[in-house]
Amino acid sequence: MTKFSELELSPSLLKSVKRMGFEEATPIQAKTIPLSLQGKDIIGQAQTGTGKTAAFGIPLIEKIDPKNPHIQGIIIAPTRELAIQVSEELYKIGYDARARVLAVYGGQDIQRQIKALKKGPQIIVGTPGRILDHINRRTLKLDQVHTLILDEADEMLNMGFIDDIEAILSSVPEDRQTLLFSATMPDPIRRIAERFMKNPETIKVKTKEMTVPLIEQYFVKVYEREKFDVLSRLIDVQSPELAIVFGRTKRRVDELANALNLRGYIAEGIHGDLSQAKRISVLRKFKEGKVDVLVATDVAARGLDISGVTHVYNYDIPQDPESYVHRIGRTGRAGKEGMAITFVSPREMGYLRTVEQTTKKRMMPMRPPSIDEAFEGQQRVSMERINEILNEGNLDQYVTVAKELLEGNDPLLVIAAALKLMTKEPDNTPVHITEERPLPMKKDFQRSSKKDSQKSSYRRGKQSSSSYGNKNRKPKRAERRP
Ligand code: ADP
Ligand code: MG
């Protein structure tokens, strides 16, 4: 464990870091910061949520000369949201050092950006296209840049920015420090590193170290057509504070968000087709707790720092284990506990096993809750509310009418009526969710599937609709109640 105070940072930086509530450096920070302060080029590979922004942000701020009004550091990020997020974090890290940070991204008025660029920012955070645009207009002068950072490099590759990045890299003085951060290292990214970096030091924080032990991981075996009912019931039983539901496609995200709203949840969807303004407003509402359930595609949620998420529901199991790790990384952050629940259709069990091999952790099977359990879960939410109000006290003004209610009524029924008034009852409003085909069956799984289903016959039992609502069915030992 490395404390920030052990990292030989200047007092103003330590002050800002302390204000941010950071005490101990995360593993990637502890390894990156000293090397970066020495001026070395670094390739940092670590999963989302491991604190990569501060890993490059702290040494960058340390290197900024506050008296020099020219751009000294440039950070390239794949999306507007990430650029904004990184610039906000850098602003905080550089607050006491008085570093001036500016975010530039597509979709924002370019004249306004040009004006802001004239005010002497020292650090630019931007998306590839817009940075290149400014370079071509000569509104972004990079001759004094001593540090260049590529954040989420693999994501930029996925989004087709590789040529833009090469163009930007070629316009920044060669005599510079280059840092590259990425969750994965596909070949084209490796090649960029070889071409544009000088003897880079690779720092890799292994996935194993990172599948946060605080995340409880479950899977629910469920047929496609049952998924939505199972999702609503899980939400009712678990009453998550903040939940993210991941869907495989944009259509799925839209349909799920609509369907959830129809059933009385406050949900919003986020995916690449939404306007920038819409995406930012959805995220803000989610962070402020005005939206309970965020429905997202992988790309839309990738890299975003959304803290306080208690539950991640994978409505569709992701095709590759990397995405799984990214998705569940949305929860259990900064030492908080989280729960991840993955829906798997019977044919997709092979994908589940692949994920488990990558994370080196088994997911526990979870039985879908029954309608009764969902209903009871919601009543418990009301009960907790009542207990809170009882604790707050201040009920004098209600006592007269309360007495009147109790006259001639069974007190038990009076309470039951009050609960009924407060509780979200099971909602069967019909919804439409287009069925998606399960992922193609994995060959290696076909061979073992028979053995598997014999071993765990209870899983088959769970699928029959008669097991819904059967309160007397005793769960087998291995099963967990939601
Ligand atoms: P990444 O870029 O690896 O996905 P971020 O840089 O977005 O991760 O950090 C994730 C969250 O963790 C942010 O809210 C950030 O403020 C917080 N964080 C980063 N470093 C620390 C630390 N050393 N201690 C506590 N929280 C941290
Ligand atoms: Mg990041």
TrEMBL record:
<dbReference type="InterPro" id="IPR014001">
    <property type="entry name" value="Helicase_ATP-bd"/>
</dbReference>
<dbReference type="GO" id="GO:0005524">
    <property type="term" value="F:ATP binding"/>
</dbReference>
<keyword id="KW-0346">Stress response</keyword>
<dbReference type="Pfam" id="PF00271">
    <property type="entry name" value="Helicase_C"/>
</dbReference>
<dbReference type="InterPro" id="IPR027417">
    <property type="entry name" value="P-loop_NTPase"/>
</dbReference>
<dbReference type="Pfam" id="PF00270">
    <property type="entry name" value="DEAD"/>
</dbReference>
<dbReference type="InterPro" id="IPR050547">
    <property type="entry name" value="DEAD_box_RNA_helicases"/>
</dbReference>
<feature type="compositionally biased region" description="Basic and acidic residues">
    <location>
        <begin position="429"/>
        <end position="454"/>
    </location>
</feature>
<feature type="domain" description="DEAD-box RNA helicase Q">
    <location>
        <begin position="2"/>
        <end position="30"/>
    </location>
</feature>
<dbReference type="InterPro" id="IPR030880">
    <property type="entry name" value="DEAD_helicase_CshA"/>
</dbReference>
<comment type="function">
    <text>DEAD-box RNA helicase possibly involved in RNA degradation. Unwinds dsRNA in both 5'- and 3'-directions, has RNA-dependent ATPase activity.</text>
</comment>
<comment type="similarity">
    <text>Belongs to the DEAD box helicase family. CshA subfamily.</text>
</comment>
<dbReference type="GO" id="GO:0005840">
    <property type="term" value="C:ribosome"/>
</dbReference>
<dbReference type="GO" id="GO:0033592">
    <property type="term" value="F:RNA strand annealing activity"/>
</dbReference>
<feature type="compositionally biased region" description="Basic residues">
    <location>
        <begin position="471"/>
        <end position="482"/>
    </location>
</feature>
<dbReference type="InterPro" id="IPR044742">
    <property type="entry name" value="DEAD/DEAH_RhlB"/>
</dbReference>
<keyword id="KW-0067">ATP-binding</keyword>
<feature type="domain" description="Helicase ATP-binding">
    <location>
        <begin position="33"/>
        <end position="203"/>
    </location>
</feature>
<keyword id="KW-0347">Helicase</keyword>
<feature type="domain" description="Helicase C-terminal">
    <location>
        <begin position="214"/>
        <end position="375"/>
    </location>
</feature>
<protein>
    <recommendedName>
        <fullName>DEAD-box ATP-dependent RNA helicase CshA</fullName>
        <ecNumber>3.6.4.13</ecNumber>
    </recommendedName>
</protein>
<feature type="region of interest" description="Disordered">
    <location>
        <begin position="429"/>
        <end position="482"/>
    </location>
</feature>
<dbReference type="InterPro" id="IPR011545">
    <property type="entry name" value="DEAD/DEAH_box_helicase_dom"/>
</dbReference>
<keyword id="KW-0963">Cytoplasm</keyword>
<dbReference type="InterPro" id="IPR000629">
    <property type="entry name" value="RNA-helicase_DEAD-box_CS"/>
</dbReference>
<dbReference type="GO" id="GO:0016887">
    <property type="term" value="F:ATP hydrolysis activity"/>
</dbReference>
<dbReference type="GO" id="GO:0006401">
    <property type="term" value="P:RNA catabolic process"/>
</dbReference>
<comment type="subunit">
    <text>Oligomerizes, may be a member of the RNA degradosome.</text>
</comment>
<dbReference type="InterPro" id="IPR014014">
    <property type="entry name" value="RNA_helicase_DEAD_Q_motif"/>
</dbReference>
<dbReference type="GO" id="GO:0005829">
    <property type="term" value="C:cytosol"/>
</dbReference>
<keyword id="KW-0694">RNA-binding</keyword>
<dbReference type="InterPro" id="IPR001650">
    <property type="entry name" value="Helicase_C-like"/>
</dbReference>
<dbReference type="GO" id="GO:0003724">
    <property type="term" value="F:RNA helicase activity"/>
</dbReference>
<keyword id="KW-0378">Hydrolase</keyword>
<dbReference type="GO" id="GO:0009409">
    <property type="term" value="P:response to cold"/>
</dbReference>
<feature type="short sequence motif" description="Q motif">
    <location>
        <begin position="2"/>
        <end position="30"/>
    </location>
</feature>
<keyword id="KW-0547">Nucleotide-binding</keyword>
